[in-house]
UniProtKB/TrEMBL annotation:
InterPro entries according to UniProt: Condensation_dom
Domain of life: Eukaryota
Protein name, entry field: Condensation domain-containing protein
GO CC list: cytosol
């Protein structure tokens, strides 16, 4: 099991969840995008693992929790036989990290890369 993170919100949570979400889009500057990609490359990692590591740190800073579970979708088309098939192969993965606050950035990114 896992514990739901208690994130502070700008208004009280409703007693019943309606699951009506929204999207927020934020375009990063070309400079910042390039810097993040350079950082990921320097760490020997992917952009996804680097940003996911940063998101784990953000969730820790906002909640104080070290045991964090984040859901992500995967295309599930890692086998060449599935590349040309029609259909939805997406799976949702729960990626759990118990943050070690002594980890360096490289150690965190390495750990996240191997989830």
């Amino acid at each position: 099991g896992f514990v739901t993170l208690n994130l502070l919100t700008d208004y009280p949570r409703p007693k019943e969840v309606d699951y009506c979400g929204a999207s927020v889009y934020k375009k990063l500057s070309k400079y910042l995008s390039e810097r993040i990609m350079q950082f990921a490359k320097k760490q020997g990692s992917t952009l996804f693992a680097t940003l996911l590591g940063a998101f784990y740190i953000l969730m820790h800073k906002l909640t104080g929790s070290q045991d964090i579970v984040i859901g992500t979708a995967t295309a599930n088309r890692s086998h060449p036989q599935t590349h040309d098939l029609i259909g939805l192969f997406v799976n949702t993965l729960a990626l759990r990290v118990n943050l070690n606050l002594d980890w360096t950035t490289r150690e965190l990114v390495d750990y996240v890369s191997n989830l």
